[in-house]
Amino acid sequence: MRELHRPDDTFRKLFSEQTPRPEIFYVPSQFSLPFLHGGKQYVFSTLTKQCVETVFPERATAGEGYDELIKARFLVPEGTDEYAFCRSVLTLLKLHDRKNLKPAYTILPTLGCNARCVYCFQQGTEQTGMTDDTAEAALRFIQNDCGGKKIILSWFGGEPLLRQDVIDRISYGIRDAGIDYESVMVTNGSLITPETIEKMTDLWRLERIQISMDGTEQDYIARKRYHTYRDAYHTVINAADRLSEAGISVQIRCNVDEANVNGIPEFIRDLKKHIRHKENVSVYLMPLYETMRGEHGVEVCEKVLAMQDMIESAGFAVTFERFNQKLPTYHCMADAAGIVIGPDGTLFCCEDIPKGSKIGTVMDGITEPDARTSFVGADRIPEKCRACAFLPDCIPVMGCPNFGMICTEARELFTLDALRRIIDETEKKEKENNT
Predict the structure, then answer these.
(1) Which helix (H) or strand (E) holds 168?
(2) Counting Cβ atoms within 10 Å, is residue 384 exposed (0-12), middle (13-18) or buried (19+)?
(3) Do residues 323 and 414 make contact, with C-beta atoms less than 8 angstroms apart?
(4) How far from the centroid of its chain's Cα atoms is residue 155's Cα?
(5) Domain count, the chain
(6) What is the pLDDT along the chain (435 residues), one digit of tens a residue?
(7) Quick check: is 285 in a domain?
(8) Which residue from 13, 116, 180, 216 could staple onto 225, CB 3.0 to 4.6 Å apart?
(9) Pick from 67, 64, 60: which is nearest to 17 by CA?
(10) Residue 36 lies in a domain
(11) Can you give the pTM of this predicted structure?
């Protein structure tokens, strides 16, 4: 059994090897993903994150030459309740990592926006903005809730840069209270100016910014649908260049579907041409959720996968995770006890603000803690998902409004591509070391 990818370190600390027992039969774990590459057989565990080259049996007993696969949980006793075991693994991971969890607050200064993106999940919502009184109440809530720990502020919207006054007010308050903080932001980037970048690097302590784009200039204009368009396409690209130069990590997220995916190579060439400071810039191609639920989902994912090398050769990092190399303790902000502060001061546990995720207000604090438990509860996991190989990467957030995508097909596609790349890189290094 030749190891290509080590198991997750925390899993190894918390769980001992499975002891082979000669009196029982062993079968492949539901989390074992066998695959072929270069004429050789491999198997990857989505639970432990270990990948090995091996002959993988359909059924075995201890002492037949498969004991190492049994110890590593690639093979499990016939009839094992693996769903229950997976749940117990995640519970222990949360207890182990809870002390390292930083308080995180996603703040929506406004639901207003200068664009009308065709895919916006907030279409039809009232474009309210945060009042001065609500901003002050939000500041007091954060001060009382964070327990003096370093915090992460995430500015979201709407378009958060429409209300820089709110961002300034809360940032000043956090700083003057002596609370250590850093921030991230999701924006369309069209309102970024040199003065804004100065505040981002100083007062806002912005570490990372995600800027949404939609492909070529023609696709960008058609899909963003700005109320007033003043060459926002090149404004955003130039802003990404200046942000990178200022040392801020820039993630350009390009939302794709079957209508614009074929134009992405031209878009990448445009970014390469106009962004000089590429060292802090990554490009993230994200199939839209509706596409991932539709008949062309796999096809779009395959095209996205084929463009990752193009992004890297253009000088940008690839943000898209081909697969989770570590067992995720938390699966989203709701699962990790993140708090969303809406423009009216309502507290939610999910930034998509679906019905059922309200947990309180900035004035009254968290008054409905059970709402979070219900939102991320295991009892909401459909039976069809409980036997999925990728369950460790998904549970327990089945209350997610994005549930229902072609998750299994997409995850397997990207996971196997990543593993084959790891194998090729490992063999290349081994060959170089032997020459």
Answers:
(1) helix 164-176
(2) exposed
(3) yes
(4) 16
(5) 1
(6) 899 999 999 999 999 999 999 999 999 999 999 999 999 999 999 999 999 999 999 999 999 999 999 999 999 999 999 999 998 998 899 888 887 788 999 999 999 999 999 988 777 778 899 999 999 999 999 999 999 999 999 999 999 999 999 999 999 999 999 999 999 999 999 999 999 999 999 999 999 999 999 999 999 999 999 999 889 999 999 999 999 999 999 999 999 999 999 999 999 999 999 999 999 999 999 888 788 777 888 899 999 999 999 999 999 988 766 678 888 888 788 888 899 999 999 999 988 776 678 999 999 999 998 888 777 765 567 777 888 899 898 765 555 655 555 678 888 998 999 999 999 999 999 888 887
(7) no
(8) 116
(9) 67
(10) yes
(11) 0.90
How many residues does this entry show for the chain?
Answer: 435
Q: Please indicate, yes or no, if residue 74 is contained in any of the structural domains.
A: yes
Distances (CA, A) of 361 to 241, 337, 342, 375: 38, 15, 9, 17
Helical residues (DSSP H) of 284-406, grouped into ranges: 289-293, 297-306, 308-313, 369-375, 391-394
Give the HSE-up count for residue 359: Cα atoms under 13 Å, Cβ half-sphere.
23
Structure tokens at 352: 């998509």
Structure-token pair, residue 69: 């696969």
**Residue partners of 428: CB distance under 8 A and separation at least 6:** none
User: Token pair for residue 390?
Assistant: 């990728």
Asked whether residue 61 is domain-assigned, the answer is yes
Domain residues for the domain of 46 are: 2-80
Alpha carbons 394 and 401: distance in angstroms, whole number: 13
Distances (CA, A) of 397 to 207, 272, 287, 336, 392: 27, 37, 20, 10, 11
The SS3 call for residue 182 is strand
**Cα–Cα distance for residue pair 396/386, rounded to 1 Å:** 11
